Amino acid sequence: MDATTDKDPLVQEQIYNALCYLGEAEPEEILNSCDEYLRQHDKLAYPHRVIILKAMETVVKNNISLLDKSTAKEVIRDWQQAASSVLVAVGQRFINKVMEEVLTKFQPGILPHYFVMETFANLSVSNGE
Q: Where's the MROH2B-like N-terminal HEAT-repeats domain (predicted)?
């Protein structure tokens, strides 16, 4: 997974494809490996983190019926946390665009998802003047 930091888009695409391919054979193993890698490399640049997150998303979507309930629950929570962190990081430069997107998740009469609220709060903290 270290190769995700390669600047060549073809190498990045190959890493994504390899993770997805391996995820077809061993979805839980790949999801756990990706999760562990992201935890160990919390300073990984966000464009590279996104490659791994997208691979995780694809593995989950393609193998949802095969996943153990506890694995699915843990992966979804971790994936949502990582996605929230990506939005907060991007929001440090493009706050208006990120806020515009986050605000679309607020619907009248519907309680927003936990991670929408957390993202909103972390955006405000990271952009406080």
A: 19-127
